[in-house]
Write a structure and sequence with these properties.
Elements (H helix, E strand, L loop, with lengths): L1 H10 L6 E14 L5 E15 L5 E11 L11 H4 L7 E4 L2 E14 L2 E8 L21 E4 L3 H4 L3 E10 L2 E8 L25 E3 L13 E10 L2 E11 L4 E7 L2 E7 L2 E13 L2 E16 L9 E15 L5 E11 L12 E13 L4 E10 L5 E12 L2 E11 L14 E9 L1
Parallel strand pairs: 10-14
Antiparallel strand pairs: 1-2, 1-23, 2-3, 3-5, 4-5, 5-6, 6-8, 8-9, 9-11, 11-12, 12-15, 13-14, 15-16, 16-17, 17-18, 18-19, 19-20, 20-21, 21-22, 22-23
């Protein structure tokens, strides 16, 4: 249905050349510790680019997906809890769906670039975790195991870029009230905090839904200064993850997810020194909310600004290989006793990626490690381009830890995936 719609758009514009491409993938995922065969999935991702009058351009991409196991999103999806009505998927059944991934028009008016429609807006260049890349929310269907580009949810937005002297200013307006999508309770990667304690009722989320009053807006300024790529960022937005508020009436306790706004200010620097590239990002959130007490004795939440930074070093001195390491630091200036996290939180990443055998194969190792809880995720990926249009992909994902941290809660969710991709 989605592919037919894109085809109709292409042939309905007389005299305009449409370019079609896409990808078909078959993927199987096997749980290692629990022995659960979690996924056997078929997905078709058609894309279309169309030249429009006046030098404008239209891009559309969609996905048809069928899986026979229904482990990651058991039953019907929970799009209504997290996505705007504009961005929800169409379900044919519990295991089959269609989704419009991107649909936008862009072009130039003089020296002003515009892009209007459903799109992804990526700020920052951190790997594995994020500091400034907060414009678009993500789906946590498979935790953080897929690459962030694969998990990012495109939003209906207006993005305008205008040169101002030596700077490029990008103004974004996002009326799409879609937020980070957590798995349903009972899903393979459902968070521990999603399980309400015994005797406590979980209410429907108080989710913003007004396209104008609840829209996010922001600006990014970028320039090249004395050899450094520099950005300054500001975003006025709702936190993508809600606060779990507790209320007790006549001895009955309820929990309700509630979304709050915050201002995020930040910036980034990067520069190449021979085979080395130095990267740094920093962000300041005016208010973030953190649970007070365990889920067994929920006592509410506490509020504090949050300062987040990342410092990274990339090395490309070995032919066809990239070696990258990063240190992420998060600090709460108004830390209060009882918060479920520490005042300071440190995480590190290590990435090793290389092309092999005449660029027909790519190997990648990624480690994300919490220096506080000593938990993390270890990932291996291998791509083999069997033919120009056929790629074989193998992936090993191994969360580890004792269960106290964000990663360790999934220590028994190790999985191995094998996929075949055909591009056309």
């Amino acid at each position: 249905m989605l592919g037919v719609s894109l085809l109709w758009l292409g042939v309905s514009a007389p005299g305009q050349a449409a370019e079609f491409r896409g990808e078909y993938q078959v993927r199987a995922t096997q749980g290692l510790e629990d022995g659960d065969f979690r996924l056997f999935e078929h997905s078709l991702t058609p894309e279309m680019d169309l030249a429009l009058p006046g030098g404008a351009h239209m891009h559309a991409a969609g996905r048809l997906r069928y899986e026979d196991r229904d482990r990651f999103e058991p039953g019907t999806n929970n799009d209504g809890d997290y996505r705007s009505t504009w961005s929800r998927r169409h379900e044919f059944s519990d295991t089959a769906e269609a989704e419009l991934l991107e649909f936008y028009v862009d072009g130039y008016l003089g020296d002003t670039f515009y892009r209007v429609g459903k799109q992804s807006i990526a700020w920052g260049a951190a790997i594995g975790l994020e500091v400034l890349d907060i414009v678009n929310p993500v789906t946590m269907r498979e935790f953080i195991l897929p690459d962030r580009d694969e998990r990012r949810l495109a939003l209906w937005a207006v993005n305008v870029e205008q040169p101002i002297g030596d700077w490029m200013a990008s103004f974004v307006w996002l009326p799409d009230t879609t937020y980070e999508q957590l798995p349903k309770p009972g899903a393979t990667f459902a968070f521990q905090t999603q399980q309400p304690p015994s005797g406590i009722q979980w209410l429907q989320a108080d989710k913003p839904d007004h396209a104008i009053a609840d829209a996010d807006t922001g600006v990014q300024l970028t320039t090249f200064l004395s050899g450094w790529d520099v950005s300054l960022n500001y975003l006025y937005h709702y936190n993508d993850r809600p606060v779990i508020e507790r209320e007790e009436v006549n001895g009955s306790v309820t929990l309700q997810p509630v979304y709050y706004r915050t201002h995020t200010l930040g910036g980034s620097l990067s520069n190449a020194f021979g085979d080395f590239t130095i990267r740094a990002e920093a962000g300041y959130d005016t208010q973030q909310f953190f649970q007070n007490g365990s889920m067994e004795a929920v006592s509410g939440w506490s509020r504090s600004p949050e300062v987040s930074t990342v410092f990274g070093v990339d090395y490309s001195g070995v032919r066809d290989w990239l070696i990258s390491s990063q240190l992420f630091v998060s600090y709460l200036p108004d830390y209060q006793q009882g918060m479920v996290r520490e005042r300071r939180q440190d995480r590190a990443t290590f990435l090793l990626r290389g092309d092999l055998f005449g660029h027909t194969q790519t190997a990648e190792l990624l480690l994300i490690h919490s220096l506080d809880y000593h938990d993390g995720v270890f990932q291996l990926a291998w791509d083999y381009r069997v033919r120009s249009h056929v790629t074989l992909r193998a992936m090993l994902d191994m969360p580890y830890g004792d269960g106290r941290g964000d990663f360790g809660q999934f220590h028994d969710r190790d999985q191995f995936s094998l996929a075949v991709e055909y591009s056309f």
